[in-house]
């Protein structure tokens, strides 16, 4: 069977014939296509996606050269609903850190005011404007939390905080407030 016949068969629900796939759907409006690198048929139109060889999956062309690669990142379960992402028919989202989840789960997370990756705690948005406003608020209220250490969940740097220092929870390296207090005994040597 030539490639055009195989593609036509895949578009009409006979993907198993030519590609060994088990994806059956004759709704051609879904623009089914076969990704030879993934080894499965996908929906959404071949021209709208590219295969990232490092991540091991197909992503929207809007992410080409604009995402952090994590090897086989889609070959994991969604951290919210635990459904396997690689062959899921639900749309996936790639976070700034490179971790992946279903787009619907991402939106649910936002509804619950969760703005960090559930896998690594890195901020999921550019927080610069928010951080400037928070700096101003902290300056006005003068936070006093005492002597101690914090670790940044964004850049993983540790910072010593002193009494009287404003912005006690602010990372001195990347300026993020996505930090948590740690005891000196858990700091890397």
Automatic annotation (TrEMBL):
<dbReference type="Pfam" id="PF13639">
    <property type="entry name" value="zf-RING_2"/>
</dbReference>
<dbReference type="InterPro" id="IPR037275">
    <property type="entry name" value="Znf_CTCHY_sf"/>
</dbReference>
<dbReference type="InterPro" id="IPR039512">
    <property type="entry name" value="RCHY1_zinc-ribbon"/>
</dbReference>
<keyword id="KW-0862">Zinc</keyword>
<feature type="domain" description="CTCHY-type">
    <location>
        <begin position="13"/>
        <end position="77"/>
    </location>
</feature>
<dbReference type="InterPro" id="IPR001841">
    <property type="entry name" value="Znf_RING"/>
</dbReference>
<dbReference type="InterPro" id="IPR017921">
    <property type="entry name" value="Znf_CTCHY"/>
</dbReference>
<feature type="domain" description="RING-type">
    <location>
        <begin position="78"/>
        <end position="121"/>
    </location>
</feature>
<keyword id="KW-0863">Zinc-finger</keyword>
<dbReference type="InterPro" id="IPR013083">
    <property type="entry name" value="Znf_RING/FYVE/PHD"/>
</dbReference>
<dbReference type="GO" id="GO:0005634">
    <property type="term" value="C:nucleus"/>
</dbReference>
<dbReference type="Pfam" id="PF14599">
    <property type="entry name" value="zinc_ribbon_6"/>
</dbReference>
<dbReference type="GO" id="GO:0061630">
    <property type="term" value="F:ubiquitin protein ligase activity"/>
</dbReference>
<keyword id="KW-0479">Metal-binding</keyword>
<dbReference type="GO" id="GO:0016567">
    <property type="term" value="P:protein ubiquitination"/>
</dbReference>
<dbReference type="GO" id="GO:0008270">
    <property type="term" value="F:zinc ion binding"/>
</dbReference>
<dbReference type="GO" id="GO:0006511">
    <property type="term" value="P:ubiquitin-dependent protein catabolic process"/>
</dbReference>
<protein>
    <submittedName>
        <fullName>Uncharacterized protein</fullName>
    </submittedName>
</protein>
